[in-house]
Amino acid sequence: MVLVQLRYNFRLYPDTAQREALARSFGCARVVFNDGLRLRQQAREAGEEYVSDGELSRRLITEAKSTPERVWLGEVSSAMLQQALADLNAAYRNFFASISGKRKGRKLALPRFRSRKDNRQAIRFTKNSRFKVLDNGRLRLPKIGDLAVRWSRALPSDPSSVAVIKDAAGRYFASFVVQAAEEEVLPPVGSEVGIDLGLTHFAVLSDGTKVTAPKFLRRAARKLKRLQQDLSRKINGSNRRKKAVVQVARAHARVADTRRDWQHKLSTTLIRENQAVYVEDLCVVGLGRTRLAKSVHDAGWAGFTGMLEYKAARYGRTFGRVDRFFPSTRMCSDCGRINDKMALNVRAWDCPCGSDHDRDVNAARNIKAAGQADFNDRGAQVRPGLVPAPRGEAVTHPDAACSTRSVEGISVH
Q1: In what order do the strands lie in the sheet with 210-212?
Q2: Catalytic residue positions?
Q3: How many CB atoms lie within 10 A of CB 302?
Q4: SS3 at position 273
Q5: How would you write 208-267 as a 3-class SS string?
Q6: Which of 288, 346, 339, 324 is nearest to 196 (CA)?
Q7: pTM, whole model, 2 decimals?
Q8: Candidates 3.40.720, 3.30.420, 2.60.40, 3.30.70; correct CATH number of 192-378?
Q9: pLDDT digits (tens, 9 = 90+) for 368-388
Q10: Cα Rg, the chain, nearest whole Å
């Protein structure tokens, strides 16, 4: 039996006393993290040895509780404080792996101090802390209480950990990580699809289907502009400014939730209806520095392809990325001829072989062919044994599913 790691997010509704307890927990975890970071920085500046993980735990948690300056650390769960140091240790390990070349991707910087002014706060509890999901549906956290949870689905197994998150909009979420048996593999189908991602059309499929870009951020721009203008008129440090900040954050959260919900539905439909899905490996970071940056970030290509990847691994489908330098747009999908570069306003072109091409459909067909060739060269598919827990597995916002009917030729419901 293969086990996969899944993450489920649910909305929390703490009462006034529980909010105060959570605020204390956020503050204590932040202080312990900053104390550990400061201690290691001081040791490095003094030329001393790297402070070990066990030494940090002993000095900053066990011994610190007996000092007048940190006696209030005893008011919160010690397991949560240990997890704060575990986050610091993971940040250092990732940094060392990055500079040594063991970690691929962009170089990571040293961990930074956490601020109490950050809009997002989080703490994590493991099984050692003895958190529990009660029979009445409430979540019991040590030294916090029984929190009301809005369950949108049942957990497949007992969670191994839970993170309590407060976002910029003032909402509370419980993020459970569970180890679940691999779901039943979907029955095989004969269709495969290549996907060309874009801005006018969010996705163009190799069979000619075009999915219109919803442009959630653009559609909410008028409301966001008005809220930002109201925020700019408030005096710094005033209570009205704090309320205005929350209103702006809620508007952005609504956009993000709606986009995530729509992408989940579309990605699930594509995985269920196709045995293999191939996409182009776009450099989203680079495109985010161009004049199209706002539209690129509004599209959310990276999040969508991430959904396709982990859902394909979970349901027994094939997922492939085509190299970003592959000339999918300029290559004729019929004869293979590579033509000169074309401007973005050229949406259709004719090949000397006599073929008439829609720019995006032709690119999607080339992506499909390249993905199939690459998959055949690599041989039989080897399914991964562990699927990373995707962030935002479940969307529980009551209005997150609005405005999802902007699809041409494909149903996402």
Answers
A1: 210-212, 201-205, 192-197, 276-280, 318-322
A2: 196, 280, 360
A3: 14
A4: helix
A5: CCEEECCCHHHHCHHHHHHHHHHHHCCCCCCHHHHHHHHHHHHHHHHHHHHHHHHHHHHH
A6: 324
A7: 0.83
A8: 3.30.420
A9: 999 888 776 554 443 333 444
A10: 25
